[in-house]
Amino acid sequence: MKRFRTITAICLIAIAIMVAGNIWYLCSLYQSIKEQTLQTVSECVRRADILEIITRLNGSSHGDDDSFIRLTLMVQGEKTLTGDYEYPNLLDNLNQTMSEYFHVIEQSDNRMPKRNDAMLDSIFKKELNNSGLYPELASINPIGDNTEVCQGLWSIDFSMTDGKAPMYQVCFSPLNGHILRQMSGIIITSAAILILMGFLIWYLLHWVSRLRTIEQMKDDFTHNMTHELKTPVAVAYSAADSMLRYYDQSDEARNRQFLKIIMQRLSFLSGMIENILSMSMERFKSMKLNIECVELKPIVEDVAGMMELKADKPVKIDIDMPDNLSVHADSLHLGNILSNIMDNAVKYSGEAVTITIRADNSTLTIADNGIGIDKDNLPFIFDKFYRVTSGDRYEVGGYGLGLFYVKQVIGLMGWSIDVKSKPGQGTKFTIKFDGNEER
Predict the structure, then answer these.
(1) What is the pLDDT, as a whole number, of residue 224?
(2) 3-state secondary structure of 304
(3) Where do the H-state alpha helices sit in 151-292?
(4) 294 with 329: CB under 8 angstroms?
(5) Secondary structure of residue 61 in the 3-state scheme
(6) pLDDT of 50
(7) What is the pLDDT of residue 148?
(8) For domain 284-432, which architecture applies?
(9) What is 184-278's CATH topology?
(10) How far apart are CA 101 and CA 95, in angstroms?
């Protein structure tokens, strides 16, 4: 168990590290997509700026009638070690050169109208939509204007080229939704893996807890079984030792008494061993019941009389059923079922107990006024080796097989059993003779 705990702790730590790493990766991915989004917004600003100037050029005498603008652009390349020229980021350089060119025209032509801020914002929003961005608010403000307009919004400073002073401050609604949609695939799969991993950890710990309970039940069974076996063995041993040490051939009554005690204890041991063997599932699978039509009341009365005789406390058993009531059952096992239930009623009760037995064509109920069973233990009383270990019940003799036997045999007969109990008010078992009327 210690090794299991160590391995489990190591695995949980490793999972926690992986989860933390995955969160870090998602945060990094978010920042990366955000930077790409801001770059896209910056390109939309550049295009909007160029298109706004072109619109003003077309509306001035500087433009042609067909609105066709001819440009001659020069892009400086970078010389390599081999003497060739490369043009890295050609499209970006062209856009920057074009932007500079139109601003030169704007500054040199006094006939051009002044910049139309409303048109610039409108073109900017269209460019954003064309790029798949849909902020609720978006505006372009010249540097130096009131910067409070960007309060609560995302903003970037737009420069004509890298290294130059910014021209505009661009404000727009946060684009978290757009970024999260870009990340939706990895977020969903990561969440699904995390949920599945959490479920598997819970399921593993749940079953480990159950296995520990079963192990505790096994230990309890070993302890109880040892105690149960020691008592009859000790009594039989004492009786045999007395006969050997103090044998008196003339005292026949005394010798018979000792032999009777030995036979009773050996018979008790034989019955206990048989009960344990009968609890084997393989034994239950191969068990052959002698199902026949038997009268119920005589069997109940015989078991009740035996209980009243062997009990070490006052026991009152009330029987209420028709004299001619018959059921299809194995009479031997039916007697054992009744004996187990009534024996528990006697064991788990106070100084005296009253047992009420009622039956009709469909059900048999056995109720007592004992100490009852709490709701936490009630679902498990038919489990193999299970015994209630709270209070003084643990001190009651037994090895947790009686009600397991009851449940199994009732199932083999085609019946069903239900139990209701409240602490301090007693317990009621209800056996339903499923299919008894059809037979």
Answers:
(1) 66
(2) helix
(3) 176-182, 184-245, 252-278, 281-286
(4) yes
(5) coil
(6) 83
(7) 62
(8) 2-Layer Sandwich (3.30)
(9) Helix Hairpins (1.10.287)
(10) 10
